[in-house]
UniProtKB/TrEMBL annotation:
Name of the protein this chain belongs to: Adenosine deaminase
Similarity section: Belongs to the metallo-dependent hydrolases superfamily. Adenosine and AMP deaminases family.
Necessary cofactors: Zn(2+)
UniProt KW Hydrolase keyword: yes
Length: 393
């Protein structure tokens, strides 16, 4: 059964959940069917699925430096004579506690990677490869998030930095067959006046197409800064037609998330998973149609949840929330976009029809044009009507 709220959002009753034949050891999925290998149990032979890399989708939560390929990071570090911590190149997903010490370790690693992006060529390579990787995973729309402040010293300022990203986003869109738009993000670690400067800059390039700025964000440690002091910057962005897409509801719980919602009036929330701790808050997010950019791998890597199956993805969806899956920082968290859908399938028991609904939510939550949304939604319908194969295959 389903109901429709006043915004036209469909709120479904929870679907029956069937436990898939996997359990977790850390980040690793281990099959627990007879013989211990995929394909050795009846579930794998009878349940039919489709290729998630072919499912059209939009990617709404991907950070600029965090999108780097490990191989590219190694090459950039060698070119610039930078030494990298082993944790950035060992291929193991980061695991830190959800406290300030854990965040400091994450931020130090992120900064080490960011310091290797030191030229226009590096920035262009990063955008092009992010687009190529997303296209290979079925993404038809990428809205990549960048704080130009960190790259400005190498290219002559924040304006050239933004223009380089936008120009390469247009080129990458044409080269790889998807749309790449940009979210300009301020940092909680910087002064709110810097955020206003970035908002005015973002407003100059506002639009909805490839190589245009579609949103304004606020990232970094939720425990830092006074949210209310960034409200002016978000008003500047909103007047220009940009989406409000702040982070909130990952490291801190409902009280802080309520402050973000009340102060910054988000169209989308980076994460928002902690809303499940306050049913009234979650209901208000559902009612207002705010899209939650849920990043399961991030939640586990940053210690918000101990295991993949602790992430409240099913709870959010069953409550009627519009959920768009994101990879956040695959360089550190060890998995890209399609793996988030795979986790929804194998850990949370989502059917292909439910995975298609997640993809639809990502498209609808994007700032793409009506024509682009219609094209991607039609592609999702085509995917769902395409032949499936046994899960073992």
């Amino acid at each position: 059964m389903a109901a429709v709220n006043h915004r036209g959002t469909t709120v479904r009753e929870p679907a029956p959940w069937v436990e898939p034949p996997w359990r977790h050891v850390g980040h690793t999925l281990v099959h627990h069917g007879r013989g211990g290998a995929a394909g050795s149990c009846e579930w794998c032979q009878t349940v039919r699925v489709r290729d998630l890399a072919k499912l059209p989708k939009a990617h709404l939560h991907l950070h600029f430096t965090g999108s780097l390929r490990v191989s590219s990071l190694r090459e950039m570090s060698a070119e610039h004579g930078m030494r990298l911590p082993a944790a950035l190149t060992d291929g193991v997903a980061l695991r830190v506690p959800a406290d300030e010490r854990g965040w400091f370790r994450f931020q130090r690693l992120y900064d080490s990677a960011r310091h290797c992006v030191r030229s226009e060529a590096d920035m262009r390579r990063l955008v092009d490869e992010a687009a190529a990787d997303d296209a290979a995973e079925g993404s038809g729309r990428l809205e990549i998030q960048v704080d130009p402040t960190s790259y400005a010293p190498f290219v002559g300022g924040i304006t050239p930095a933004v223009e380089i990203v936008l120009d390469e986003a247009r080129a990458a869109s044409a080269a790889h067959g998807l749309e790449v738009a940009v979210v300009v993000a301020a940092s909680r670690m910087r002064h709110p006046l810097d955020a206003r400067t970035l908002a005015r800059l973002a407003a100059r390039y506002a639009g909805d197409g490839p190589g245009e700025v579609v949103g304004f964000g606020l990232s970094n440690d939720e425990r830092r800064g006074d949210t209310s002091e960034f409200a002016h910057a978000f008003r500047i962005a909103r007047r220009a037609g940009l989406a409000s897409v702040p982070h909130g509801g990952e490291l801190l719980g409902p009280a802080h998330l309520q402050e973000v919602v009340g102060t910054l009036a988000p169209d989308r929330l980076g994460h928002g998973v902690r809303s499940v701790e306050d049913p009234a808050l979650l209901a208000s997010l559902v009612e207002s149609g705010v899209t939650l950019e849920v990043c399961p791998a991030s939640n586990v890597s940053l210690g918000v949840y101990e295991r993949d199956d602790d992430v409240p993805l099913r709870t959010l969806v069953d409550a009627g929330a519009q959920v768009a899956l994101g990879a956040d920082d695959p360089l550190l968290f060890g998995s890209r976009l399609v793996q988030q859908y795979e986790t929804a399938r194998t850990v949370h028991g989502f059917t292909d029809a439910e995975l298609a609904d997640l993809a639809r939510a990502s498209v609808r939550g994007s700032r793409a044009s009506a024509a682009t949304k219609q094209r991607l939604l039609a592609g999702i319908d085509d995917w769902l009507s395409s032949p499936s194969h046994p899960a073992a295959g």
